[in-house]
Amino acid sequence: MRISYKYRLYPNKEQHKRLDFTLERCRLLYNRLLDERIHAYRDEGKSLTYYDQANTFNERKEEIPALKHVHSQVLQDVAKRLDKAFQSFFRRVKNGEKPGFPRFKPPQRYDSFTFPQGGYKLEGNTLKLSKIGNVKIKLHRPVEGLIKTCTIIQKNGKVYACLSAEVQPKQLPAYTDAVGVDLGVKTLAVTSDGDYFESPAYLRKSEKHLTRLQRCVSRKKNGSNRRKKAVRVLARLHERVANQRKDYAHKVSRQLVNRYGLIAFEDLNVVGMTKNHHLAKSIVDSGWSQLVVFTTYKAESAGRIVKQVDPRHTSQLCSNCGVIVKKQLKDRKHCCPNCGYTADRDENAAVNILKRATA
Fold this sequence. Notes:
Layout (H helix, E strand, L loop, with lengths): L1 E9 L2 H32 L5 H5 L2 H7 L8 H23 L17 E4 L4 E4 L2 E4 L3 E6 L7 E10 L2 E9 L11 E6 L3 E5 L4 E3 L3 H4 L1 H13 L5 H35 L2 E5 L3 H4 L6 H7 L1 H15 L2 E5 L23 E3 L6 E3 H14 L1
Parallel strand pairs: 8-11, 11-12
Antiparallel strand pairs: 1-5, 1-7, 2-6, 3-4, 4-5, 6-7, 8-9, 9-10, 13-14
Helix pairs in contact: 1-4, 6-7, 7-10
C-alpha cells in the first residue's frame, strides 16, 4: 500500500529562486499543452493524447532553452497531470455530472510539481533535487518503505516535500468489537459505547481574528504589495485552522481504529446539509467528511471495516423498542413513551447506526 509523508523544506535564497523558476516553467507548459489540445480539437477535430504531447518535449527544449533547466520527468508529469484532468472531465460528462472543463492555471492555482521516478534522493537531513540542489529537510518522523514519488509544494510562503512510499500494511491485533458513531455539531462524535468526542470548533474560535484580517485585505488597493502581504497573513491563519481540524480528526480516527474491528457511520449528504445557512458554518467547522475519510483509510491498512448506513430516522427511532419518537433539533434527550427507555439523543442514534451496520 502507498502512504504519504509530508515534510517542511528550508531552501536558501538561490534554491528558492530555482524552485520558483521550475514551478513557473511547469505552469506555463501546462497552459501551453492545454491550449494545444483545445486548438487541435477545434481546428482539426483531433484529440491529443499524453504521448502525442510528451514526444514533443525534445523539440520544445530547442525552441525554449529554459526547459532544459527543469528535470525531464518533471516536465513529463505536467503532461500527465493535464491528461488526468481531461480523463476526469470525460468521466464526469459520461456520468451526467457537472463537466468542469480543464482550466488555464494562474500562478496562485499552480503550486506543485512532481518527480515521478527519479531526480531526487533523501540523504540524512538533506533532500537532493535535480536542477535545484541539496535542500534542508525537517524529518519529524522516519520514512518507512520504498519512496516512489516526490512532490514539491509551495503554500503560503512555505515549501513542503510530499514523499509517497510503498509500505507493507501493519495489521493490528484482531478485534471483534463493533461501534456505531453519530456525527454532530455540538459534539463531533458520540459512540454507541457512550464515548464523547467534543467538537473543538477551531473556526469559531479564530473567527474574530479572521474577520479582522479580512477587513485588512479589503482596505488594501488591488494589486499592491501591501494587499499581497495581507492576503498571505490571512491565508496562513486559514491554513492553521485547517491543520488544527486535520490533527484532531487524525487523533479521533486513530482511537476508533485501534479499539474496534467494525466502525459504522451515517452516510450523510454533507453538501446538501450545508445549504441550511443556520448550521452550515458549524457543519463545515466540524469536518465530518474528513473524519470518515481518515477513519476509512486507517481501517483499510489495519484490517478493520468501516461501514456507512442510511441515516434516515436514526435520531427519531428508539434503539430499545424500535418506535419512532419525534424530536426537534433542540431536544437532546431521547425519552420513549412506549418502553420508557431514556438516553442521550446522540447515543441513541449511535446505537441505531450500529444495529443497521450489523443487520
